[in-house]
Amino acid sequence: MLSRPVARAAVVLSCLVWGAASAVLPSFAAAADAYPVRPVTILVGTPAGGPVDVSARIAAEGLAKRWGQPVVIENKVGASEGIAASQVSRAPADGYTLYVSSTNPFTNNPFLFAKLGYDPAKGFSSIGGISEIPMAFVANPKAPFQSMASLVSYAKAHPGELSWASAGVGTMNHIAGEWAAADAGIKVVQVPYKGSGPALTAVVSGDTPYGVVSLVQALPFVKNGAVRMLAVTTGKRTSMAPEVSTVAESGVPGFDLAIRTVMTAPVGTPAAIIEKINADLNAVLQSPEVQAKFVGLGADVIVTSPADLTAMLDKGRSDIGRVITNAGIKPE
């Protein structure tokens, strides 16, 4: 049993510790309420003018208006967005350095590069999604199949005979094609092109009977009959072509892939600040004016919670890692 003086000292110490802790808790909330009190920097790992960069700038413009503070974009290009990821992961976790990227640094890079300058699973705090650019499986009108299901049936009857066009080795288009082929149980031959545009041209010309290309690039060719739409790659149907089935609906359950742009922060950023940024980002993305800008880019907005984004990245890392490993994909 403690003596009375010792017991009294323990009680006093306990009160002091609790008082200190309870004083800290409101300080985080107060900091979040006031945030931001100075300019915020968003690092982007792709060149200016690309889809990730433009998505970041649309989001930054909306956040700056809500916050009354400048939101500055800095492009740190290189290592498949890895240079920017490394810099953000080492930045102070105070909410003033954010990272807007594709999902590649978190889902693809761990399986394509022997060493990374950041931890893709534990080095960042998720904030929220921004946009997604759907891809599409398209076929030449003279191809001997009219749907994703009939493509699979034809390929099973003619193993190794079909070729298909991708936007290049290691691209999301490539991964989409390999994923669908593996899960559908077909053997087809990838023909890599230097970008989605040349891949689409190959399908239009008949050099390859089908390909995986950007949906927004494909739509004009679908309308004029130059290519046939087979399926979109997103888990749910896209607002840009709601009549088109998804790959998942066409016999490959669980298939969900797109060129997605997301926002994260250094790990350890206070939860209250993360929640505030997420709420403000989602408010920006739900604006009809902002949504119209993304439609002009061929993108849908994606509104998520931080937990939703973490789950998305974890699933993507598992799914894409499996495809890259099984297909033996290596960066060129």
From TrEMBL:
Family matches, as InterPro entries: BUG (IPR005064), Bug_dom1 (IPR042100)
Keyword Manganese applies: no
Statement: the UniProt record of this protein carries the keyword Endoplasmic reticulum: no
Residues of the signal peptide: 1-23
SUPFAM superfamilies found in the cross-reference section: Periplasmic binding protein-like II
Segments forming a coiled coil: none
Keywords: Receptor, Signal
Entry's family note: Belongs to the UPF0065 (bug) family.
Name used for this protein in its record: Tripartite-type tricarboxylate transporter receptor subunit TctC
